[in-house]
Amino acid sequence: MTPAGPAAAAEPFDPAGVVWTRLSPRLVTARRAVRTGLQVVPLLGLAVLAVLVSGWFWLGVLAVALTAAWQWWLIGRQVPAWGYAERDDDLLVRHGLLFRTLVVVPYGRMQFVDVQAGPVDRRFGIATLQLHTASASTDAVIPGLPPQEAARLRDRLAARGEARLAGL
Question: Which of 82, 91, 138, 146 has the greatest CB tally within 10 Å of its CB?
């Protein structure tokens, strides 16, 4: 017989005794800025067509505006669902609301660790850390880290990975 209740259902994605570190709230702002920028061109184009060609294009303006509002709200919910935790032997990374994912990366399986920051990331003061393993299915990505935390985590994970490999 399996235990019932919310605690039993959440256990695979929230192991006992794990303290999760959240991402920077600046990731929400960065993602919203990118989405808003992508919505401006279709919104303006449809508005011009509605004025010059036909009033039916206002339905397109409404559809784009509703989609933008929904994405704005969704980004605000998705980013806080991300988290990572360092344990003695592995790194845990979780994300997702509807489709939840928990990736466990043993330190001894890490091949290398990347830190990346594109122009938008640099503008908002965040970076992305990516862990590469022998199996692509266990690679993990942690977006939205402050650059100092990304560098600290990169160095710490690389050192732990080397220590685990030396023990083999």
Answer: 91
Question: Residues 102-114: pLDDT tens digits?
Answer: 988 888 888 888 9
Is the separation of the CB atoms in 106 and 90 below 8 Å? yes
Question: DSSP secondary structure string, 27-81?
Answer: HHHHHHHHHHHHHHHHHHHHHHHHHHT-TTHHHHHHHHHHHHHHHHHHHHHHGGG
Is pLDDT above 90 for 45? Answer: yes
- CA separation, residue 136 to residues 4, 36, 124, 143 (Å): 34, 32, 29, 18
How much is the pTM? 0.79
Rounded Cα gap, residues 148 and 127, in angstroms: 9
* Distance between CA atoms of residues 98 and 32, nearest Å: 20
Conformational region of residue 17, where left means phi above 0, alpha means psi within -120 to 50, and beta covers everything else: left
